[in-house]
Amino acid sequence: IDAAIICFNQVFELDPKNTENLNNRAGLQLLQKRLPETIADCNRILKIDPQYPSAYLNRGRAHQEKKNHAKAILDFGRTIEITPNDPRPFLYRGNSFMENKRYQKAFADYSQAILIDPRNFESYRNRGFVHLKMNRFRNAISDCSRAIEIHPNLESAYLVRGIAHRSLQEHDKASLDFKNHLKLHPESSQRNQIEAYLKTQGQ
Q: What does pTM read for this prediction?
């Protein structure tokens, strides 16, 4: 990645208004969590082309990483205005709404992402988590089951579905989901709590 950024820097020196180059550099800097640099490159792009959707998307993700969800929501909304058939800004904006506990808005965005891309497993899982927060446990199970059907190794979907089963006193199903979660994610932050629960179930 560092070598690629060096190449992009060289292109920038020769052609500072090359939006494709700036966008590629912003994307790599985002991967490296170089958030101020990402935002700066996106701002450069938008000064040249105010309708460049990836610049809003990447800037929104950088704001999201900085926990500035209000700015992230605005940038994802702008992306949606320009490219309404892209599921990613709906997913990302839903995540910011969820972080702000605006669950109905998060639900709407995840649902739209799924409508655009019915195999968007992240949106199914995250919508399942919204259902869980709203005590709609059957719906949480349904969405997480769909996420697992698409992506069988999605450990977080097993965790959310397990919590929903436990909330419904379906302890055998909950135990199985928790075991699958730990199998796929041995370093889970929930490991101690899960193991304590499994002991109560004689597991």
A: 0.92
* pLDDT at residue 5 is higher than 90: no
What the block records as the tokens of 174 is 């909950």
Amino acid at 129: F
**CB 93 within 8 Å of CB 109:** yes
Residue with the two structure tokens 């990613």: 88
What are the tokens at 137?
Answer: 């446990």
**Tens of pLDDT along 33-86?**
999 999 999 999 999 999 999 999 999 999 999 999 999 999 999 999 999 999
- Classify burial at 131, counting beta carbons within 10 Å of its beta carbon; exposed 0-12, middle 13-18, buried 19 or more: buried
CA dihedral 197, 199, 202, 203 (to 10 degrees): 80
Take residue 44 and report the two structure tokens written for it.
């450069």
Tell whether the model's pLDDT for residue 89 goes beyond 60: yes
